[in-house]
Amino acid sequence: MNEEGIAGGAGAEGGAAGGASKESRTYVVQSGDTLSKIAKEYYGDASKYMDIFNANTDKLSDPDKIQVGQELVIP
Which CATH number belongs to the domain containing residue 36 in this structure? Predict the structure, then answer.
C-alpha cells in the first residue's frame, strides 16, 4: 500500500550469509503503523504480526512499541 516505507524488496542484493531461498525485505515504520497493519500489508493476515516481531527482537522489546523511522526485517 504505502510504498514510501518499503526498503529493499524482491531485488535485494547480497544480503546476509545463508537464507538463499527467502527474499530479504525491510520496512521503515511510518506514522500510524502497527505490527498488525504491516503484517496485513505483507501477508494479508494481521495476526501474523508476531512473525515480524520475532524477526526483530534485536530492535524491539514489545510488539506494541514500534517507532517511526525504525527499519524492520520482514521475514
Answer: 3.10.350.10
